[in-house]
Design a protein that fits this description.
Structural class: mainly beta
Helix content: 10-25%
Shape: elongated
Number of strands: 7
Strand order of the largest sheet: 1-2-7-6
CATH architecture of the domain at 31-88 and 99-133: Sandwich
CATH class of the domain at 31-88 and 99-133: Mainly Beta
Length: about 150
């Protein structure tokens, strides 16, 4: 086994990263349904908007499709699942484990112009793509007022 020189600044940077992730995950939700959920980790997510839909891309490397659940209720989209670490194999010896494993949950409040019935999800090469179509916003009708 090789000796590695301890770098206190790397340790501080790692603690800072973990603290930032904890703080960003525990921000107050905008709807009561987005309750704070304790999870082991949170996958990185990109949210894009086009003229016709919203696209949410979540990085889920080494997560099986069967371990991912996508749901939407009352305007809140939730992605949850689990990435498992197989430590049962006695022939492997771990020297460092820096990636996150365990259960994850991400929730997002969707804008009112989304169609909850149109949610589609596909999972390819460790990336979950969730698509939600937009509905045309109802515009108030102008009524002409006549003076009698």
């Amino acid at each position: 086994m090789a000796l590695v020189k301890w770098d206190p600044f790397a340790e501080l940077e790692g603690m800072s990263d973990r603290l930032n992730r904890l703080i960003s995950r525990s921000a107050w939700p905008t709807r009561s349904e987005e309750a704070l959920v304790t999870a082991d980790w949170a996958p990185a997510v990109d949210i894009q908007e086009t003229d016709k839909e919203f696209v949410i891309k979540a990085e889920l490397p080494e997560v099986k499709r069967e371990e991912v659940k996508v749901s939407i209720k009352d305007g809140v989209l939730t992605i949850e699942g689990e990435r498992k670490l197989d430590r049962e194999d006695k022939s492997k010896k771990f020297h460092r484990v820096e990636r996150f494993y365990g259960k994850f949950v991400r929730s997002f409040t969707m804008p009112e112009n989304t169609d909850e019935k149109s949610v589609r999800a596909d999972f390819k090469e460790g990336v979950l793509n969730v698509r939600i179509a937009k509905v045309e916003a109802v515009r108030p009708k102008a009524i002409e007022v006549k003076v009698a």
